[in-house]
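debug: dumping io for the single-chain case to check the tokenizer round-trip. Nothing else runs in this session.
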Amino acid sequence: MKAWTAPDVPTLDGAAGRLRIHDTALDELVDIVPDNDEARFYVCGITPYDATHLGHANTYVAYDLMYRVLLDCGYRVIYTQNVTDVDDPLLERAEQTGVAWEDLAEDQVNLFREDMTALRVLPPQHYIGAVEAIPAVVELIESLKLTGAIYQVDDAEYPDWYFEVHRAPGFGRLSKLTDDEAVALFAERGGDPDRPGKKDPLDCLVWRLERPGEPSWESRLGRGRPGWHIECTAIALQYLGASFDIQGGGSDLIFPHHEMCAAEGAMATRQPFAKAYVHSGMVGLHGEKMSKSRGNLVLVSRLRASGADPMAIRLGLLAHHYRTDWEWTANALTEAQQRLTRWREAVARPAAPSAEPLIAALRHALRNDLDSPAALAAMDAWASDSGDDPSAGATVTEALDALLGVRL
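debug: decoded output
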């Protein structure tokens, strides 16, 4: 599956450095120290049954910021992202709308590409759909069978394949939930703790055998399709290898999704699945988390169609620290557009303050757990100051593009 066209990223002088970021598993800041100066990270992608809302955009802009910081630190970056292009929510939406599930997925993936391009989000080198990853999924399940952690439920009609989570070393260290909390959240977020025949309520589906009217594929496991968690595990291991640097996504993926992926990956390789787990906060609207199920969405495509500058949308997102939960309001875009206008006017001045202290401040903020609000404040201060450097405006324009992804 193709991603989207990459924007040009200016290269700044004096790039050496290190990213320090919050690891959810340890609940502390950690240094990212890639092997051989090659930073490998994975971010969970969309299930393409609806358009890109600001909650999605907030997540992918956050990891785009991380990507840019890693590049600026002088690392080569290998970024992988999936698309869950076959799953229950997609199939349910297709049935509700009378659209073929393949057509719905293709349409929404194309819209997502357009939104990411407009927001100047750097594309992953590997953009992989669940359907194209089925051979890798089956191979991983077969490998896990050798460990004894894969079993079929005792169901004469649909003996689906499950992963025995408590066999995995370190299961639960990411989410730190009690058993009761985990079971409740598992049920709320697509799990099936009450399914008869499972060894443990938290065991997760890895291969769903064919049901009437559902898409399915031939495999040594029987005709069927992948479970959700095993899809990401297989894709990440295939393209990044074991113990890659960062597993990322929204905080709603900590459990069960990332916990299950970590368990499957560790069981398969006998190494940590990822070195660090990084999670972005949730965006709310009218007092509730923005989500497709609630329908309280602000869509990026609709904002763009209404004439909103994509760089103002991006600034509206960057005004909040990536780990915080926050609420979108009608004023957010207006304030972001005003900030964007001030910045554009500032870099267009015949002379301005020196760019070097600003670039140092931007780097300091962003390398310290992607502190974008501090970076924006540094630029605000520069824009309101006066100076006598005729080349500063052009240098700052390049720096904002390279580090914040904001093109003036």
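debug: round-trip ok. The chain has a mean pLDDT of 96.
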